[in-house]
Specification:
By secondary structure, this protein is an alpha+beta fold. The protein is built from ten helices and twelve strands.
């Protein structure tokens, strides 16, 4: 007899939906796990129940799966998952085991095991594992309602994660605003006026000196002053934008990248970009200056490498919520010892002639939109920047 044909079908579905409503009212993942364990214990009269949470999506099962809660006293939170949980996660399919395969240990009394993975779109959020020494096989009358309950739990966990991610983005935005406002006040008010004076007197001296070496020194002063003045202006623009931007807006990623690529290649003859716009047909949350994030990374590839350099743009759909733009070049790369600090304000490589603030702005802007940025080594041995933005 199928699940839908059972006499208690309507009552069981009603009970499952009540728990589903309660799960969606939970504030934390721990609350979701606790209520899921309660539902299975009461509705199915099963006493060996484990909820395994999927924390990541990079395919590394050992790193991604953790026991979030269990009625089995031998399993504690954060314990490694069982093989059946790994199998359900890897295949994305419900797993039913009987007889000798059902137990964790060879001499186990367990006669039947069921592992149900559920998630959002193609992303598994959790795996529910139940074991029994009284049931000989978990048939459709167990599998179907367990899948319904797992769907409710996965939806609740996904909603909580989304709320937490948004809250982190808001906190990061406030932190970045405070940090950038500090730099703005320091540069604009304490240094900006002096820079204008230096630049003005340098121009006067340049017209007066005739000695070749002295003229070279004056030219260096002029360049340094001009770079610093430009830096002050960029900080001011950034602060003004962040202050005016309450929430990131939904924008076309493809159009953003097309504009950034066109501007960067127009400015740098040595720069080539391998880019298929069709790969980036996404809507993402971003602000007015997101163009400068991609433009800065592309320009860095041209400025900090000798000779011609090619940057490949690759779309990586990290999850159903995010998309990552990888910008991989074939240049000299970034030394591993500074990659961890390269996005800090003022940090730069030993051979860099820049200010060290460009990538700091990249991180500040990206995180102000709720995204992230990272750097590593490209397949060609150069630098690979990965900018992740939330999909709209």
């Amino acid at each position: 007899m199928g699940f839908e044909q059972r006499q208690d079908f309507a009552r069981q579905v009603a009970d499952l939906n009540k728990y589903g409503q309660a799960l969606n009212q939970c504030e934390t993942v721990d609350e979701v796990v606790s209520l899921t364990l309660e539902a299975i214990t009461i509705l199915f009269e099963l006493t060996d129940v484990t909820v395994v949470e999927v924390r990541g999506s990079d395919g590394a099962v050992d790193d991604d799966l953790r026991v979030a809660g269990s009625t089995n006293p031998e399993l504690s939170a954060d314990a490694p998952p069982s093989e059946v949980a790994r199998r359900a996660h890897e295949t994305g399919e419900t797993v039913v085991l009987t007889d000798d395969e059902a137990g964790i240990e060879p001499d186990s009394d367990t006669t039947a095991t069921l592992a149900v993975p559920e998630g959002i779109v193609d992303e598994t959020i959790c795996v529910i594992v139940v074991r029994s020494a009284a049931v000989t096989e978990f048939g459709d009358e167990f599998v179907r309602p367990m899948e319904i309950l797992a769907t409710h739990a996965a939806t609740a966990i996904s909603n909580i994660r989304s709320r937490e991610r948004l809250e982190r983005a808001r906190r990061d935005l406030e932190t970045r605003k405070e940090m950038i406002e500090l730099y703005d006040r320091l540069l604009r008010h304490d240094i900006g006026n002096d820079l204008q004076i230096i630049a003005g007197f340098a121009d006067v001296v340049a017209d007066e000196v005739e000695d070749e070496q002295a003229a070279e020194y004056v030219a260096k002063i002029e360049r340094a002053a001009a770079n610093s003045v430009d830096l002050v202006e960029r900080v001011g623009d950034l602060v003004s934008t962040l202050e005016a931007q309450c929430e990131p807006e939904a924008r076309d990623l493809r159009a953003l990248l097309e504009r950034s690529v066109e501007d960067a290649t127009d400015q740098h003859e040595s720069l080539s970009v391998a880019f298929d716009p069709a790969d980036f047909d996404y809507r993402v949350y971003a602000g007015d200056l997101i163009d400068s994030v991609f433009g800065n990374v592309l320009s860095n590839a041209a400025v900090h490498n000798d000779g011609a350099v090619t940057v490949r743009l690759i779309a990586v759909e990290s999850t159903s919520d995010d998309v990552t733009v990888a910008l991989a070049d074939d240049g000299a790369g970034i030394p591993p010892d500074i990659r961890g600090d390269i996005f800090e304000m003022g940090v730069k490589g030993a051979d860099s002639d820049g200010t060290g603030f460009g990538l700091g702005f990249v991180r500040a802007l990206t995180e102000s939109h709720g995204g992230t940025v990272a750097v590593g080594e490209s397949d060609a041995g150069g630098a690979e920047f990965q900018i992740t933005l939330e999909r709209a």
